[in-house]
Amino acid sequence: MPVVTMTVNGKSVSGEVEGRTLLVNFIRDQLNLTGTHVGCDTSQCGACVVHIDGKAVKSCATLALQADGADVTTIEGLAAGGDLHPVQRAFKEHHGLQCGFCTPGMIMTAVDMIRRKPELDEKTVREELEGNLCRCTGYHNIVKAILAASEEMRA
Amino acid sequence: MYQFDYHRPANLKEAAELLTKCDEAKILAGGQTLIPTLKQRLAMPSDLIDLGALKELSFIKAEGDAIMIGAATPHADVAVNADVRKHLPSLAKLAEGIGDPAVRHKGTIGGSLANNDPSADYPAAVLALDAKIHTTKRLIEADEFFKGMFETALGEDEIITEITFPHPKRAAYVKFPNPASRYAMVGVFVAETPMGIRVAVTGAGQEGVFRVKEMEDALAKDWSADAISGIKVPAENMLSDLHGDAEYRAHLVTVIAKRAVAAAI
Asked: Phi-psi region for residue A134, left (φ > 0), alpha (ψ -120 to 50) or beta?
């Protein structure tokens, strides 16, 4: 079987995979990083979003082998030295979650969104969340959390 | 997913050789349509040839009166590129509206065109702007490229390398997205190009993207939304499903085309 090697959350990792192994399965089943979720498995819900070379992508619509040599960040890699990332902190403070299933994908999408668009407004946040579904919150507190984090990170 | 062999060629020559050599190979570009399709076991390729390592296929160049876009350029790059935004703002807006941010980071223009989904956005731009599609073998005119739903003029061992768009005098793309999937139920790209006025419709036709000659002729005489308000495409050629029947889509084509003409810059 082919061997895939990549950097995940700053550590070099490798493992044997099939051609058809999805990146999300490599991350969850072989690296035991289960923070990245599989929600819909049809690439619509965004619970599986991770960063590849700094950009948000759906790890359920990416083969592990496509990420060979890449730099991958998962939700477990955000809290540097145990301190929550500003986006994680904002989700906590603004109650941006209820059941929490969509949260890892929401946060990874939010970090990418703030990187690309430092001047966020509510309309833009809602548009940018098009690929992330939440069935609990009605999105209001998620939007509030992202706006608060973006403001804090800009300061 | 069914089992397949994965290949990651280092250059275009190697990719083309693999495509000829392998039995039932498919090209993997961004994979945003292909991987979900494979997961549903709707396709069973023997081999996947990943173009991900071919950095030479990911570029945007502005030369003379044209913009050249490499086939493996992701939608997100087209959406923010300064040259595209300056000379082809309609195309930047189209790219910005495909799928969602994560899809736009991976999905590519070449992948979208080769797949020719009847609801895809890029085919409308290529057809309306009279773009040229360069492949590993030849140059294909937009009018010759789209051959019906999921069908193109591409040969089995041919790979798209670049798309050349002329600068239009004015153009716009407006789509009516399905409220759930966000795919175009009707998307209309109107353009006044150096070669004339063209109107291309995606999302609606049973045979995929198509031109509306009657609207083009009317707009050539009078570039205004009013000039096409009485022109309706025949409902019998439209897609019909639970999201909207053929009559509804035919009606939408005129409505959205008028909005596109009014929005053209």
From this structure: beta
Fold (topology level) of A80-154: DNA polymerase; domain 1 (1.10.150)
What is the distance between the alpha carbons of residues B31 and A61, in angstroms, rounded to a whole number?
Answer: 7
Query: Is A63 in the B-facing interface, judged by CB distances under 8 Å?
Result: yes
* ipTM greater than cut 0.90: yes
Whose CA is closest to B109, among B33, B195, B188, B46?
B33
Q: Which residue of B has its CA nearest to A132?
A: B100
The alpha carbon of A72 is separated from its chain's Cα centroid by a whole number of angstroms, namely 10
Q: Nearest residue on chain B to A42, judged by CA atoms?
A: B36
Whether A4 and chain B come into contact, CB under 8 Å, resolves to no
Q: What is the pLDDT of residues A83-128, one digit of tens each?
A: 999 999 999 999 999 999 999 999 999 999 999 998 999 999 999 9
Please write the tens of the pLDDT for every residue from B181-231: 889 999 999 999 988 999 999 999 999 999 999 999 999 999 999 999 999
SS3 percent helix, strand, coil of chain A, rounded to 5, is: 45, 15, 40
Q: Nearest CA of chain A to the CA of B63: how many Å?
A: 27
Indicate the CATH number of A3-76 among 3.30.200.20, 2.60.40.10, 3.10.20.30, 3.40.50.2000: 3.10.20.30
Residue of B nearest to A127 (CA): B100
